[in-house]
Each structure stands twice: as C-alpha cells, then as structure tokens.
Amino acid sequence: MGRPGDERPVFGERKEELEKHEFMMGIERGRLAVALDVLTDALVLVGQHGVYCKSARQPGLPTMDIRMISKGIEDAKDLIGSVLVEMKGKKG
After folding, report:
1. Residues with Cβ < 8 Å from 1, sequence gap 6 or more?
2. Would the pLDDT of 1 be above 60?
3. By three-state DSSP, how is residue 2 classified?
C-alpha cells in the first residue's frame, strides 16, 4: 500500500483483505470491493437488529430508522457496484 491516507485505521484493520483484493483487481477496484464487503456486513447487522426492533405503527416491519439505514446502505452498495462495473468496462 503506502499511498496517502493509508494511515487510517481501516487500512490496518482490513490489511489482509485489502492486499488480496488490491492484488487481484488493482488498488481502486480492490478498495471498492472491500468497501462493498464492509457495507454488506453492516447490512447484515442492521437486518439482525431489525428483527428485534419492530414498528409500532406497522407490525411486521422494522422501525423506520432501521429501514432508512438499510436503504442507505443498499443505495451505497448499488453506487459502488456501478463504479466497479464502469471501471471494468474502461479497463478492458
């Protein structure tokens, strides 16, 4: 690694995962792929939390904040995924 900004904690905490993906996909695409993994992990945790935090107004649905967080994470994943597709299309 050794690029500007690499001193942030995430680069140490996810060092092996970043190195693997950066080697396979290049630095930019590798980091985006790891970001997708991080968002997926967050989405799973929010989903688990949503099982216990049910809406009083709409039984059977998670609370509004859980739904908004889930939507935000899904939107971010879609945006990152679209960047990966664009980058792949420009590469080859």
Report:
1. 11, 18, 19, 22
2. no
3. coil
User: Burial, 20: exposed, middle or buried (Cβ in 10 Å; 0-12, 13-18, 19+)?
Assistant: middle
Tokens 């693997």 correspond to 20
Domain boundaries, given as residue ranges, for the chain: 13-85
The rounded distance, in Å, linking the Cα atoms of 84 and 68 is 24
Mean pLDDT for the chain?
Answer: 90
Average pLDDT value for residue range 20-42: 96
Longest CA–CA separation in the chain, Å: 51
Centroid of chain to Cα 22: 16
Q: Which stretches within the chain are classed as H helix? A: 9-13, 15-25, 27-52, 64-91
| pTM exceeds 0.85 | no
Segment 17-26 mean pLDDT: 96
* Alpha-carbon span 25 to 73, nearest angstrom: 23
